[in-house]
Amino acid sequence: MTDTRRRVKVYTLNEDRQWDDRGTGHVSSGYVERLKGTSLLVRAESDGSLLLESKINPNTAYQKQQDTLIVWSEAENYDLALSFQEKAGCDEIWEKICQVQGKDPSVDITQDVVDESEEERFDDMSSPGLELPPCELNRLEDLAELVASSLPSPLRREKLALAVENEGYIRKLLEMFRVCEDLENREGLHHLYEIIKGIFLLNRTALFEVMFSEECIMDVIGCLEFDPALSQPRRHREFLTKTARFKEVIPISDPELRQKIHQTYRVQYIQDMVLPTPSVFEENMLSTLHSFIFFNKVEIVGMLQDDEKFLTDLFAQLTDEATDDDKRHELVNFLKEFCAFSQTLQPQNRDAFFKTLSNMGILPALEVILGMDDVQVRGAATDIFSYLVEYNPSMVREFVMQESQQNDDDILLINLIIEHMICDTDPELGGAVQLMGLLRTLVDPENMLATANKTEKTEFLSFFYKHCMHVLSAPLLANTTEEKPSKDDFQTSQLLALILELLTFCVEHHTYHIKNYIINKDILRRVLVLTASQHAFLALCALRFMRRIIGLKDEFYNRYIMRNFLFEPVIKAFLNNGSRYNLMNSAIIEMFEYVRVDVKSLTAHIVENYWKALEDVNYVQTFKGLKLRYEQQRERQDNPKLDSMRSILRNHRFRRDARTLEDEEEMWFNTDEDDLEDGEAVVPPSDKMKSEEDLMEPISKFMERKKMKDSDDKEVLGKSSLSGRQNPSFKLSFSGSTKTSLSSPPSSASLNPGSPGSPGSPGPGARSSPSTTAVTTKGGLVGLVDYPDDDDDEDEEEEEEDVESKEDPLPPSKKSKLSS
């Protein structure tokens, strides 16, 4: 079994006729039992996974191009290519392919044999070669018919290609073209158009090398000007020789490189402009033309990269203050196209390419260019910067942190990027969107490195929040100094939405950096001013920002929200939206529903301060649920004995079916012991038993209190203080059926999140889960029940889990998990 391991890159041709990079690995050839034949195997160098397993089929045509490339088609519209790092490896695999197919390794293509009708195969086998008519003016029509008839048959197409190649027929055809053009023989020119177009569809590299040579390519383009479908010929040659100009921004001394650049431009022009749009059947016949352009670009990048004098002169002129604006514009456009060409390189070569640019000082050069006034130059520099960020964001982060030690904040590269994002003059902010994506990549902790000596995340985020965050948030802070946005036009709103999107990303992915910034700069209050914007998308961005903060369940954030009464602008927006069923309505209700289920401290804050504004909202149960959850929480705080009573009553209640009990036991045994708070013990119910006389007093008191509450159900609960704390007032005045005004002035005894018993800090009663609010006796058995109109079954489940939670004390996190 042969096993010649060579380093290769695997490419496949996609639907857009572009080569997709499938990975780098090592190729070998050997017999594969499953495929019943000798196959090419490529295993990834990173993890050894199989990138390619392709049987060397005797009927498949393999092409060897440019000494290091093997291309073939495995099926219709599925082309493959192996690009070798070494010529020796390519030669070795090519010999193996030729050995399997019984061909001479000196050829550059193995013959293509496909299934055809028996009659056609017999006819073709009887004639070993295809004989071309002599290249004469009166035989051009016969030759055009021969080419057209050969294209549908792969075997005849192959024989035609060999005949054209062996007889040097292309040069003869181009001589005939010059004769016909001199004689103005329009019929002969039309036949030559069909012949040359057919030769393109033969998809043969050897023919392309002749047609695209310096002495032939302009005549080939000339032949393609005389399309029979057009009344007048095209003027492609005139455009290429007079209009299109080759600009050498830096003189190129290598004549081979210069010729390769000319050739690539012209072939690209032929593909894009000269050749007619291929039909569905013809498109796959031009795959070799795509490959020719692709690998030419790879070769150009490699030759430029190896020319150290060229790159040195390029960057020297870019950063030279004496360079005039037109020259600098050309230099930047060249560098942009140079970076675009680099995308065709294999990963290891692309690494070397960007490393070379970095060593040459591309980032300091971009910093100079971005500080210029020319919009086009800045746009090209932004595109170059995007290539660098996408390739290696760590390299960019390291540069900006180093320059901060020497330069002021105003001229830092990253701050220049932020300023260009803010000052984008495009009404649709296309450039700002691109720059925001680059900033997001730079501040994303997922692509930051952690080494033994340093942590990039800590260092860069500390730098960013110290030197750059104030620049990013400046438009937001400037526009939210009052109760409504000071500027509410579409372009400003779009910019603020982009900034909010990036800040929301920071809330999700950064920890104490963004938390300190939001609390110290009172960012959330300023953001919520935008809920009054006339643009719904901006108001929703502000809501999304607050929702992400609440979703973190961080008590620092919760105390900050309660201390500054930051739900007030949200409730104002909710009431101003009225009864309209839209995205704003749904987003706000979802936020309150999340608070009801998961955030006890905010639940109490909302009910105590804003219940009067929300009590009439009946089309959803969210706000009534908030009130119920708040009442249950207060009952636990006011009646600590009630919890122990429930523990005993639990033993006298009706039992549910065994399956329900098994589910509850499974929930308990799935609870981690680590989740129990220090010092808590799991006490069996029998240890908490009390006498019946001890229970009667709290039961009767509880029943009396319930009756009193039923008679005065519509009074605002905020009048009674929680843990002796005076609640901030929340006043409402109604001047109509829909208009509501809010005011919640802070008082001297406003909410203090850190005080004992307050929602922000776990007090003695804060550990209790939501409980039931009524006691009833049925059939001689006592039980706790709370059956709202629509939630009988759900609340019974909650009640039983509450009693169990008192039997078996759990930490708050587990109680909330069970009660929900």
TrEMBL record:
<dbReference type="GO" id="GO:0030289">
    <property type="term" value="C:protein phosphatase 4 complex"/>
</dbReference>
<dbReference type="InterPro" id="IPR006887">
    <property type="entry name" value="P4R3-like_central_dom"/>
</dbReference>
<feature type="domain" description="Serine/threonine-protein phosphatase 4 regulatory subunit 3-like central">
    <location>
        <begin position="143"/>
        <end position="632"/>
    </location>
</feature>
<feature type="compositionally biased region" description="Acidic residues">
    <location>
        <begin position="670"/>
        <end position="680"/>
    </location>
</feature>
<protein>
    <recommendedName>
        <fullName>Serine/threonine-protein phosphatase 4 regulatory subunit 3</fullName>
    </recommendedName>
</protein>
<comment type="function">
    <text>Regulatory subunit of serine/threonine-protein phosphatase 4.</text>
</comment>
<dbReference type="Pfam" id="PF22972">
    <property type="entry name" value="EVH1_PP4R3"/>
</dbReference>
<comment type="similarity">
    <text>Belongs to the SMEK family.</text>
</comment>
<dbReference type="InterPro" id="IPR011993">
    <property type="entry name" value="PH-like_dom_sf"/>
</dbReference>
<feature type="region of interest" description="Disordered">
    <location>
        <begin position="670"/>
        <end position="820"/>
    </location>
</feature>
<dbReference type="InterPro" id="IPR055236">
    <property type="entry name" value="EVH1_PP4R3"/>
</dbReference>
<feature type="compositionally biased region" description="Low complexity">
    <location>
        <begin position="729"/>
        <end position="755"/>
    </location>
</feature>
<dbReference type="GO" id="GO:0005654">
    <property type="term" value="C:nucleoplasm"/>
</dbReference>
<dbReference type="Pfam" id="PF04802">
    <property type="entry name" value="PP4R3"/>
</dbReference>
<feature type="compositionally biased region" description="Acidic residues">
    <location>
        <begin position="787"/>
        <end position="805"/>
    </location>
</feature>
<dbReference type="GO" id="GO:0072542">
    <property type="term" value="F:protein phosphatase activator activity"/>
</dbReference>
<dbReference type="InterPro" id="IPR016024">
    <property type="entry name" value="ARM-type_fold"/>
</dbReference>
<feature type="compositionally biased region" description="Basic and acidic residues">
    <location>
        <begin position="702"/>
        <end position="717"/>
    </location>
</feature>
<feature type="domain" description="PP4R3 EVH1-like">
    <location>
        <begin position="5"/>
        <end position="101"/>
    </location>
</feature>
<dbReference type="InterPro" id="IPR051137">
    <property type="entry name" value="PP4R3-like"/>
</dbReference>
<dbReference type="GO" id="GO:0006974">
    <property type="term" value="P:DNA damage response"/>
</dbReference>
